[in-house]
Amino acid sequence: RTPLVIDTDPGIDDAVALLLAANSPEVDLLAVTTVFGNVGPEVTTANALRVLRLVGREDVPVAAGAARPLVHPMLHRAEEWHGGDGLGGQSGLLPEAVRAPEPVGAVELLATVLRGAERPVTIAAIGPLTNVALLLASFPGLKPKIARVVVMGGAFAGGNTTATSEFNIWSDPEAARRVLVEEDVPVTLVPLDLTLRCTADGPWLTALATGGTAAATLAKVMEHYRNRYLEFYGEDKAALHDSVAVLEAAVPGTLRTTPLPVDVLCDLGPARGATIADRRLNAPGRRIDVALDADFDAVKATVLNRLLDRA
Ligand code: BDR
Ligand code: CA
User: Fold this and answer.
1) Is 76 annotated as catalytic?
2) What ipTM did this prediction achieve?
3) CA 241 to CA 153: how far, in whole Å?
4) pLDDT tens, 72-84?
5) Which of 154, 178, 180 is nearest to 166 (CA)?
6) Strand partners, 152
7) What burial letters (b/e) apply to 1-39, b meaning 16+ CB within 10 Å?
8) Residue ranges around ligand 1 (CB below 6 Å)
9) Which of 39, 48, 97, 110 would be 43's cystine partner, CB 3.0–4.6 Å?
């Protein structure tokens, strides 16, 4: 099985991605670490604990990570997408967490997991990249223990937070630049361009609602998200962003990738947080695997199937 750690900011689609990981037989879920992002850090941590309880994985250690970006203060959260409680105003439907997070922080837990792992570990990074950047900067000797970092983030044809920028990258561009550009760990980037084509619609959510307790709860949580997509894009298509990255982490090769050098704009202008891929054959810079294509219907169906409780 693939040893996996998920670094996350739950977040509605993060919560769905955690259920997906819990239900994926290829995955050995070693830890969940949290980061500020969609909502504040206390809330993302509380939500991770609640979701793991909902999905019956209280054995998975949870550690709280970065409360703010590396360099600049964060100006914006994604509460309009995820609700003030990060779960579409429905967090009360999930069980209250009965345990506290680990007494160590996210970076320490990640380092401990990597050190103790027999095989290199995949990190699915589905929030801002602050924790991952801090891990690589603090424990460079552990890089060989990382199989790859599968990042949900980036946008090449227009953003969802600003005209140019995707939320996870925009939330901490300096951290993203470290991970995508400056460090030498293998990265698979799952950008908005792809995840906006892997979406949940009415029939998908109806099926989810009949798929057992955890699935039905998350179907209710997703209603808010679905309505937001309708308002924002005018289409009944709630993107499964984080689940797409977690599916790729669980089943490598689900997405079709192209090795490209990608840069991240870190200036404070209107394109802050933009990702730029260089498609010239002889482009300089290190290449990361950018997921630009997939069998979108198969991804949607596979995610749904895995979320359902077949007991
Ligand atoms: C990403 O931003 C967050 O709002 C989602 O959880 C996802 O990780 C999509 O841009
Ligand atoms: Ca997320």
Assistant:
1) no
2) 0.99
3) 9
4) 986 678 888 899 9
5) 154
6) 190
7) ebbbbbbbbbbbbbbbbbbbbbbbeebebbbbbbbbbbb
8) 11, 13-14, 38, 78, 81, 126, 152, 160, 166-168, 192, 241-242
9) 39
